[in-house]
Write a structure and sequence with these properties.
By secondary structure, this protein is mainly alpha-helical. The chain has a domain of about 100 residues. It contains four helices and two strands. Strands 1-2 form a two-stranded antiparallel sheet. Helix 1 runs antiparallel to helix 2. It is flat, with a radius of gyration of 22 Å. The N and C termini lie far apart (about 70 Å).
Length: about 140
């Protein structure tokens, strides 16, 4: 029986356009975040989760020779750069699939992007302002 050797390797990960993905830089940033959390006396479990975020990554070699991320453990903290990066890639992929499907269903359709803003408000008025914005948004679509 052949033994499987676990060898730590430094891999170069590139996107479809050939740009290198900076896993190391994001890992360093998550370690700095865990230090900040520790200095601010956050729960030890949160500090440990952020510290161990993406500590070990397992890849599977695809038939074409490319490596695909197979297993990893992420902290899922909203402030973690590693997790934010992964989340943004996931959302970009999902949005692209939705847009592709929308274009198939409505080939002559066009997309409109709308940004709605209000002036800064005091904290006490936040709930009322959010309710008013929701009502205004609903009126816009009716």
């Amino acid at each position: 029986m052949d033994e499987v050797q676990n060898q730590a390797q430094i891999l170069v990960d590139k996107n479809s356009k050939g740009k290198e993905r900076d896993w190391r830089g994001r890992k360093i940033a998550s370690l700095k975040l865990s230090e900040v959390f520790q200095a601010l006396d956050y729960k030890e479990t949160m500090v440990e989760r952020v510290t161990s975020c993406a500590e070990a990554l397992r890849f599977i070699k695809q038939p074409d020779g490319h490596l695909k991320l197979y297993q990893a453990f992420f902290c899922k903290n909203k402030l973690c750069q590693m997790c934010n990066w992964r989340r943004s890639m996931k959302y970009s992929y999902q949005t692209a699939r939705i847009v592709d499907e929308a274009m198939k269903q409505q080939p002559k359709g066009r997309f409109l992007f709308l940004t709605l803003t209000v002036k800064n408000i005091e904290g006490e008025k936040l709930s009322d302002t959010l309710s008013a914005l929701t009502q205004a948004f609903n009126r816009l679509f009716k």
